Amino acid sequence: MTAAEIVLAFIGGLVFGSFANVVVFRVPNGFSIVAPRSACPNCEEPIAWYDNIPVVSYLVLGARCRRCGQHISARYPLVELGNGILWALVVWRLGVHPQLPAYLAFATALVILSAIDIGHHRLPNKVLGPSSVTGAVLLVGATLVHQRWTNLEHAAIGAVAYGLPMLVLGIAAPSAMGGGDIKFAPYLGFHLGWMGLSLVLGGALLGLVAGGLGAAVLLVVGRKGMKDAIPFGPFMALGAMVMLLLGAGALRPYLG
Which of 77, 172, 191, 239 would bridge with 58, disulfide CB 3.0–4.6 Å? Predict the structure, then answer.
């Protein structure tokens, strides 16, 4: 893996991060992600191409709309940067192989779904559905190229192994687990399982631990109360991405 490939992945991630921002804003508000072109939510002035360069335009404009001066949320550059960094890390971890497109799409989907869950406390089917279909098609394609059918079998097992316990937990304690989280789990398990079944267990455990610690921190600092809902999707995504990037070996010191 060369430095040039990682830099190109980062730049590509920034570009797709800009698209991710469109999805994060429009889907929860019921807008089409295809049209019209991006505009300021306050003055509705269409955004020129030179004001839509990932991260750079945000800094040049001083986080304000060029026309009306409305403040631009820091979420926009954070989503772009986050997606760029994840793409670079995925390329560094996996290299340029047939499964790479699937995991780049996976990383972007995790960014989108996490941002929506943080802002709206839901994981919409309009994002999760197409992401699941895209992931399945790309990983089936990678399986055909590699001719390693065990990977696909493990992906299917991973989807069930992660999804079924979450379904049981959601039925037993509906206040603790939302419907979106239950549908999110098989999606994560499918992608982790294709890389190895041990990643599924690790991703699920890390997600639960991160969610518990995150909730405790939010309660301690006063950002959330005991009765407030805390989005669990971003913690599930974090656990999955950590396992994808570090591999099963990351858990060996703790599991023996």
Answer: 77
